[in-house]
Prior knowledge:
The protein is an alpha/beta fold. Helix content is 41%, strand content 14%. It has helices spanning 14-25, 42-50, 75-100, 124-144, 162-167, 179-189, and strands spanning 5-9, 29-31, 57-60, 106-111, 149-156, 201-204.
Amino acid sequence: MKGRNIVVTGGRGALGEAVVAAFTARGAVVHVPGREVRFEDESHVTAYYAALPSLWASVHVVGGFAMAPIAEASLAQLQDQITTNLVTCFLACREAVKTMRKTGGGRIVNVAARAAVVPSPKLTAYVASKGAVVAFTQSLAAEVLAEGILVNAVLPGTIDTPNNRKGMPDADRATWAKPQEIAETIAFLASETNALTSGALIPIYGRS
């Protein structure tokens, strides 16, 4: 991947940093949007991608999490999850496709979640948004495959991050996926080595 330009949204979080490191180790030129680029703002995303050099891959880690029993979940919470997880993914994918069309192909990797495909209680707003990412990924993959753009999603479970350790101090961390492990799968999906896989939902949650 030496010299390839790759965008990683959410590249300053625990998983994002691991993804950036994986690409950097492979010689890629990694572009990490700063906090001033708000990925729920259409104009920001459009301007950011328009200013990039030729783009090989775009990986969308940015997102959020919310948990509440259905009777306590608010409409505002659902709307926030849809914006944070789906809208950011949609806008980044759309602009990445526009850029990749100029060079005849590329790779897109979205981050969905185990909960989007495995029933999980008290996560309805989160699941709705990540389930939408799953459906969107498969639809987009079918749309752009003929143009040489391969689109996939990874489905992490609980990730071993400082925030998760703090929020679940009594959990069995031995079952949690390490950010570096997830990053390796993402790096493969975004590489030239992946010449066939598109529209796939890759489970990377192990026992988590």
